[in-house]
Design goal:
Chain lengths: ~650, ~325
């Protein structure tokens, strides 16, 4: 699976400094992590037991406190071990810090993907591959759930396992797949799109990636907790249920902290990169919409994510320190949790959607061979969603018992968000108008996204209306709605993005025929799985149940069978990705005849992206405009419409 | 050319709209209307559905037409028309959605006010939720000794506007009768309320819709709507049962408090969160049955976890009630053979 980065003579790559035997144990790497992490585990254990002994608490072995200590110290030690803090540690301690010689850039063998690497392109690939791993894990959990739900009554798992399955499924899909998959694609593409050599803070970038597998394995390892297993209060982890749950719940609270920290760091990095590192001539109004989308998303992440971190810390404190944030008997307030949680988790829906809007805009414009319709309004509607997104959180709480007056204003803002979203949908449709549509796999997924997202958006109107929501909330109607938004919306655009940039990232073409098989299996499987859930929910089936009334048996069987077909489609995707990465046809620099800057360099790009800094002179979407240019590179204008490297064989639709 | 394409596109849109209208009208999307509130909510639902079918028909019409007409032939290297935007169109598709969502918001607000409207002089039922059972208290119905009537099943009179005052003893639950369309969370520490005026006789499920732990899926009860005379008869029956003393109370007590988690053929319950009592009860004496109720962690059946069953039945039930429950269980276990 090795990807060789094309090297350039002027940036000869230096190997890491030679090391002796002892240096091997103390030098940054997996070996150092392998002894530092257990050391931290022991240290944390001693610390807790020692402190409890000194203070006279009993019992000494108190699992919740130990888990809290382990989940803080072990990851820190692991990060220190693989070298996540080396440069800063040297600098702080006054030792000579190795000046950045960029020797860590690029990946020469597959092993380089398992090291702390500061190259945004390597990090982008690390992100995407890691998130796909968690996508597959969470998808398997969905398969187990559908097996149990195929018939009414209990068949394969008990209710505790089932509650764990849907909780971990949702947590992994949200925190370890959708959010970071977009961060990964953005990581790879944004610096290239704006004509920058790397991200603004490459070391921070590396660190934010390595927090992710920590969060993911933390959530997965909750299955190993004795007595109770995985956290099972749903990904929403409502108090007070989450406070009285078995200890597995702590792994969710801490996992969210690590994933959230990763998100915030990446978002800061994106913001600084986008604001300060655009190539000369790239004004905000010349930025591709993907960059706009990530600008809006990163702003959301930076403002909102601390709230989810706070909500989980409150639960942790209630459990471990015996505070009473959510215990009404001691003056706590149960509903406060939901306000704090949704103040993040509603904007999180846009964190999971706006980058997808960006990808859809790129793909649709390129494969329709047309300028994006209403570019400025497209960018402005992203910003409108960003602002409105903070004013709608309580629509998740219409039946929660919150202040009842709050329902009407929250309904109004919720419905108004349909307006900028509608502008985007209509503009994508108008972009298709009189275009020359090439239905390659990315285009299929992007147009599939538009149609499925419209259904998810319209069911959102139902849920936004208070009287209908009172009936439909917490039923399968909501399950259908979020999957139309997050699967039909986010996942379709992630697939579109992965296929679209696969040639750029790997230097090879994917198999177009398999890509189309994947799309149609996904599209049909998805609709047969999730559309009937609307009916099942309105009829009276609540969500998050392992067992249900027998009258829903037939439709649940249909849903389960379709979901297995949907699961099987992922195998086609994985096969295509793995085989094409190893043996696909070599990709030209610009197989899609696109205008944005990432396609004007080789595939994969040179180590520092651009041999000379591009000069941006116009809009990125001037397809069909005679004489218009997006940029001048090496004194050579990037022409519209004409392909520098025609590649007819690739889109033989 | 332009005119023809608009006609074709309109036809596609109308075809999609017609298919959607059939799907919307001929599939029974909503359960029966069992309350005045259901009628109000369903009207909002149909109002939103008409708007959504129209919007989706427009979107589908344009996309199907575009895919059909603008597909590039294989090997095509040309670009599309360089259209950058159209201010008029953009204003149209901003203003029309603004009007539509405003209409939905106004109509929803009015409907909400109607649904929650209740005359000052109305019946009250207190709903108390706990893992994993419902208790309904009728503060207007006093039993002997001044205790209000409580029941594990909800029985209400037809056409009477009822205010439900809802609370929880532990985690969050949610009170929902699909046929009534009204739903309200039960939250520890506060009392929430909802209003229902049943308009249909019959028995409907009471469903917990907020994840409340291992027994969430089985946290069910039923709502029986009776006519005025039937309701009065039910109340008299309850009074009589209460006056008759312990042993008769065993069964309703079991169904209301234990049945959602435990299977017992005699009582007709099918809960699966806790052990199947038809298997574990036979052979036990009164003492061990009592211990299993008030001290559930003392002995855990194989394959089950401690701390799932509430620990407070000893305090919740009177001694008399416990006695009745134990007596009933022993009878039920013996009677099964």
């Amino acid at each position: 699976m090795a990807v060789e980065t094309r090297e350039h003579e002027e940036h000869a790559v230096q190997g890491p400094p030679p090391r002796g035997g002892r240096r091997y144990l103390t030098g940054a790497g997996w070996l150092r992590a392998a002894w530092l992490a257990p050391l931290a585990f022991g240290l944390a254990t001693l610390l807790v037991i020692g402190a409890r002994a000194a203070l006279g608490y009993s019992p000494l072995w108190e699992l919740p406190v130990l888990i809290a200590a382990w989940t803080v110290l072990v990851p820190v030690a692991f990060l220190a071990g693989i070298g996540g803090f080396d440069y800063w540690a040297y600098w702080i301690s006054g030792r000579p810090s190795r000046p950045e010689d960029h020797s860590g850039h690029g990946a020469h063998t597959w092993k380089d993907y398992f090291r702390v690497n500061t190259d945004h392109k390597v990090i982008g690939v690390q992100y995407v591959v890691t998130t796909i791993f968690f996508f597959v894990a969470a998808g398997l959990m969905a398969m187990f759930m559908r097996a149990e739900l195929a018939r009414p009554g209990m068949q394969f798992v008990d209710t505790n396992t089932f509650n764990g399955l849907f909780s971990v499924h949702a947590s992994l899909m949200i925190f370890l797949f959708i959010i970071p998959a977009f961060a990964g694609l953005g990581n790879y593409v944004i610096p290239l799109m704006i004509g920058a050599p790397d991200m603004a803070f490459p070391r921070l970038n590396a660190l934010s990636f390595w927090l992710l597998p920590i969060a993911g394995f933390m959530m997965l390892s909750s299955y190993l907790v004795p007595d109770g297993g995985a956290f099972s209060a749903g990904w929403t982890n409502y108090a007070p249920l989450s406070v009285v749950q078995p200890d597995g719940n702590l792994f969710f609270q801490m996992g969210v902290q690590w994933a959230g920290a990763s998100s915030i760091m990446t978002a800061l990095n994106f913001l600084v990169t986008i604001i300060t590192m655009r190539a000369p001539g790239m004004s905000f109004w010349r930025m591709p919409l993907l960059v706009w989308a990530n600008f809006a998303t990163s702003t959301l992440v930076v403002i909102a994510t601390p709230f989810v971190a706070g909500s989980q810390f409150f639960i942790l404190f209630d459990r471990v320190l015996h505070t009473n944030f959510f215990d009404p008997a001691q003056g706590g307030d149960v509903i406060a949790y939901q306000h704090i949680f949704w103040f993040y988790s509603h904007p999180a829906v846009y964190i999971m959607m706006l980058p997808g809007f960006g990808i859809a805009s790129e793909v649709i414009s390129v494969f329709a061979r047309k300028p994006i319709f209403g570019y400025r309004l497209m960018a402005l509607s992203l910003m409108a969603i960003l602002i409105l997104g903070f004013s709608v959180w309580a629509h998740h709480m219409f039946v929660s018992g919150m202040a009842s007056w709050l329902r009407i204003p929250m309904m109004l803002t919720t419905l108004v968000i349909a307006v900028p979203t509608g502008i985007k949908v209509f503009s994508w449709l108008a972009t298709l108008w009189e275009g020359r549509l090439h239905f390659t796999t990315p285009m299929l997924f992007a147009s599939g996204f538009v149609s499925m997202f419209v259904i998810g958006g319209l069911s959102g109107i139902y849920l936004g209306s208070v009287p209908i929501d009172i009936h439909a909330s917490d039923t399968y109607f909501v399950v259908a709605h979020i999957h139309y938004v997050l699967f039909g919306g986010s996942l379709f655009t992630i697939f579109a993005g992965i296929y679209y940039w696969f040639p750029k990232m790997t230097g090879r073409m994917y198999d177009e025929r398999l890509g189309k098989v994947h799309f149609w299996m996904t599209f049909v499987g998805f609709n047969v799985t999730f559309f009937p859930m609307h009916w099942v929910g309105l009829q009276g089936m609540p969500r998050r149940v392992a067992d249900y009334a027998p009258e829903f048996g037939t439709w649940n069987l249909v849903i389960s069978i379709a979901s297995f077909a949907l699961g099987a489609s992922t195998l086609v995707f994985l096969y295509n990705m793995i085989v094409s990465w190893r043996r696909g046809l070599p990709a030209p620099g610009n197989p899609w005849r696109a205008l944005t800057l990432e396609w004007q360099v080789s595939s994969p790009p040179p180590i520092f992206n651009f041999d000379s800094i591009p000069q941006v002179v116009g809009s990125p979407y001037e397809y069909g405009v005679r004489g218009a240019r997006h940029a001048v590179m090496d004194g050579r204008p990037v022409e519209t419409g004409r392909a520098p490297e025609p590649a007819e064989a690739i889109h033989s639709s | 050319m332009r005119k023809r394409s608009i006609i074709q596109m309109t036809l596609v849109g109308l075809a999609v709209g017609a298919v959607l209208a059939v799907v919307a009208l001929f599939i029974p999307w909503l359960p029966d209307q069992g309350a005045e509130q259901a009628r109000i909510v369903d009207n909002v639902y149909w109002f939103v559905t008409i708007i959504c079918v129209a919007v989706f028909a427009v979107v589908a019409g344009v996309s199907v037409y575009a895919v059909w007409k603008f597909r590039a032939p294989p090997g095509d290297m040309d670009d599309g028309s360089p259209i950058h935007g159209h201010t008029g169109l953009e204003i149209v598709w901003t203003v029309i959605p603004v009007i539509l969502v405003t209409a939905i918001a106004v109509y929803s607000s009015v409907a909400l006010a109607q649904a929650e409207d209740i005359p000052d002089d109305h019946m009250v039922v207190e709903v108390s939720a706990r893992q994993f059972a419902w208790t309904f208290t009728y503060p207007g119905v006093q039993l002997e000794g001044g205790r209000p009537l409580t029941s594990g099943e909800l029985v209400v009179p037809l056409d009477e506007p009822i205010e439900f005052r809802i609370t929880s003893e532990d985690v969050i639950h949610s009170f929902w009768v699909p046929e009534w369309r009204m739903k309200q969370d039960a939250v520890q520490g506060i009392t929430t309320r909802t209003v229902v005026q049943p308009t249909k006789l019959g028995t409907f499920p009471v469903v917990c819709t907020e994840l409340c732990g291992l027994g969430h899926a089985t946290m069910r009860s039923q709502a029986r709507v009776l006519d005025e005379a039937g309701y009065r008869r039910w109340i008299e029956e309850q009074r009589r049962l209460a006056a008759e003393g312990a042993s008769v109370q065993g069964e309703p007590l079991f169904v209301a408090n234990c049945g959602s988690c435990h299977t017992l053929a005699e009582a007709g319950t099918q809960g699966q969160t806790g052990p199947d009592l038809d298997t574990v009860l036979p052979g036990q004496d009164a003492e061990s049955v009592l211990q299993s109720i008030v001290e559930p962690n003392a002995e855990i059946s194989e394959g089950f976890q401690p701390d799932v069953m509430p620990q407070n039945y000893g305090e919740m039930f009177s001694e008399q009630q416990l006695e009745g429950l134990v007596e009933y269980l022993l009878e039920a276990a013996g009677g099964g053979e």
